[in-house]
Known about the structure:
This is Beta-glucosidase. This protein is an alpha/beta fold. It has one domain (13-444): TIM Barrel (Alpha-Beta Barrel). 37% of the residues lie in helices and 15% in strands. It contains 14 helices and 13 strands. The chain has helices at 20-23, 36-41, 59-73, 84-87, 97-112, 128-132, 140-156, 169-178, 193-211, 234-249, 275-279, 326-340, 369-387, 430-444, and strands at 13-17, 77-81, 116-122, 162-167, 218-224, 227-229, 285-290, 294-297, 308-310, 347-351, 392-398, 417-420, 425-428. The strands form 3 sheets. Strands 1-2-3-4-5-7-10-11 form an 8-stranded parallel barrel, surrounded by 4 helices. Helix 13 links the parallel strand 10 and strand 11 (392-398). Helix 3 runs parallel beside helix 5 (97-112), helix 8 runs antiparallel to helix 9 and helix 13 packs parallel to helix 14.
Amino acid sequence: MTAPMPQFPAGFRWGVSTSAYQIEGAVDADGRGPSIWDTFAHSPGRVVDGSTGDVACDHYHRHRADVALLSGLGVDAYRFSVAWPRVQPSGSGPVNAAGLDFYDRLVDDLLAHGIDPVATLYHWDLPQPLEDSGGWLARDTAHRFAAYADLVAARLGDRVRLWITLNEPFIHMSLGYGMGVHAPGRMLLFDAFPVAHHQLLGHGLAVAALRTRTTSPVAVANNYSPVRVLGDTDADRAAGVAYEALHNRLFTDPLLGRGYPDGTVTDPSLVHDGDLAAIAAPIDVLGVNYYNPTGVRAPADDSPLPFDLVPLDGYPRTAFDWPVAPDGLHELLGWLHRSYGDALPPIEITESGCAYDDAPGPDGRVHDPDRIAYLDGHLRAVRAALDDGVDVRGYFVWSLLDNWEWAEGFTKRFGLVHVDYASQARTPKSSYAWLRDVIAAARRGPAR
Length: 448
């Protein structure tokens, strides 16, 4: 039996997260246009199991049942993403009213159940027409993103409780444009810097647009990974510095007014006068997505990168073969606190979760003790960071539902709720019941 969960501050936000393309399905419904993920998933050989997000979890048609699951879990907040091509099929021009109506209904349903809507404006599903015009390599996409943000906030700004502009711009840049393993499938390596700058510029311009439409707080959700240098040579340490600049600082230093880290700007002409000031527009919350630390050492002689990534030993592994390292979350939160000081806004953990090969047992129930252990350890890491003085305001589990996991298709299950993709039946796992009880105990406060 594990020790009782330590108490969290009053008002600490308990939530779960999802993203549009991974759960909504209905890719041809009500005027939605194609996204880069529709194109990528339908390209042979791109997705491990050959599947697509055409149906996914059919959340578009089943959102009321999914909101009921949220209500039963007892969360304070639900982080979802708005599908840009559902709202603005070509990425520019007028809004698609039928598409925006869906999010209007979802937000109202959440509020009726006492759940704060947390809306992410971009979770990687760029409208395909914008990609055809250059995607995030083109500066114009930043301006299109700001215009889209304005359209969404004009409709939902009075009810969404927290706005998140971008989700994991580093992952989108590195896997989508750098290594080609995510949509749109480009392999540019360090020539992908324009994607970083234009996403950040789009974020800054979107913040300005949101401020005219809503008084709710505004955030960005970055993926972070504490760097573990394996080796004790100067070359190993230099590799760690290079990886930290790329993964953790490239999308944080400019946001907090420090400009780009040394060595990351491959084409200074892309950074126009006023860009850095726009990017550094104050945000109210820094979203932290954490899954695992990263092992780094000096690169091999023939490597095109200034570092090599190496596995970390000594940790349990998820079905993704990621190390389960709650100490990494504690380490990361401390690093942010020390590195950015008073410039660091309050933090919310906007994603934290794990994939395991969950399946119903003979009793029809889905037992996932490894996920319970994962969540228990990571929540204790957050509590330890709070004790160290880090201002952490909330924790969102990834994910509510098993879903379509990008290039891994349906082969990885992150959900608190099991989804039978053939029947769309939802079965809450034992981790769902565990988290429900943790949240209820947190609301009751310490025993007297």
